[in-house]
Structure formats: C-alpha cells, structure tokens
Amino acid sequence: MYWTIKAGNIVDEPADVLVCSANPHLTLSGGVGADLLARYGMAMQEALEKVVRARTPHFIPQGEIIPYTDTTLPYRAILHAVAIDGWYDSNSRIIEQTVTAALEMAAGYAARRVALTALATGFGHLALAEFADGIRPLLSRAFHPIDEVCICLLEDYRVRVLSEHLKGVKVVLAPTG
Length: 177
Description:
Elements: E1 2-7, E2 17-21, H1 31-40, H2 43-53, E3 65-68, E4 77-81, H3 92-108, E5 113-117, H4 128-135, E6 148-153, H5 156-165, E7 170-172
Parallel strand pairs: 1-6, 1-7, 2-4, 2-5, 5-6
Antiparallel strand pairs: 3-4
Helix pairs in contact: 3-4, 4-5
C-alpha cells in the first residue's frame, strides 16, 4: 500500500471510497460536505440526519465513522469521519484512530483506492503537522485490499506543508496553467 498527497478537490478524485471530515451532527454545511451536497443532492444529508436522530444523545461521537452508500455515486461508499469534538478540537491520536477505523471500513468495501481529506484541519483546529503525526504510524501498515490512499488538499501550499511532515510520501501538485 502506498500513500500520495495531491492538490485538488477530493470530490473530483477517482476512488473506490471517499473519506471526508464530518461534524458530530453530520451536517453537510461546509468544505467537502458542502461540495457533496451541491454535487449529489439532499439524499445523503437526509440519510445522515436520520442516523443522528436515531441516536441518544443526537450526535456522533469523536472517532466514529458513518458510511453512506448510494448506487448513483461514483464511489462504493462515502465514509463520514468524525475526527473533531463539539468544539472542533482533535489531536494526532484521534486522527490515527479515526483514519485506522476508516481504512478498515474501506477495506470492507473492497476498496483498492481511497481518497482522504486532512481530517480536522479545515473548520477543525488541528494543524497539518498534527494531522501528519496521526498519519505517520499508518504509512507502513497494510489494509488489504487497499493499494493507495490519496490525501487530497485544495491548495498547493497545504500540500507542500503536509509533505514536509510526511517525508517520502509522493506529492502531486495541481498543473500550472
């Protein structure tokens, strides 16, 4: 299994499974969630709301992964990873645990290629260096049948920052025009 860091919108990245950041209420209100909502409509949001309403209390705890599948999507599943708490805080240990759980779940969908966002670093308060600290222990692990995990970031400068903390991971920057 190998890892890449790529500049670009994760929603445009070809993958069997997409792992995106989610808030504890699974609201598709910003970042990747907003892109998914705009691209694929309300069915995903309605299904996620149903999951939250079925819980007591009505939230998803930090570290949990909520899968969503729909035959109209270009992915086998979208895994909504809650790596933040209610105050949008996280840490590298939570990242390691959450990404491990997401990759194990993705393997259960027979994923060969997984696209992953830099969990908890957008609206969340986690620095890319802390995200990298959570990812580093996973670089040498296998999650069969996954061949590749591609960490997608929108901005080239964030790709460069993350790559400084994950030495040896292949980097793909956006083409310059």
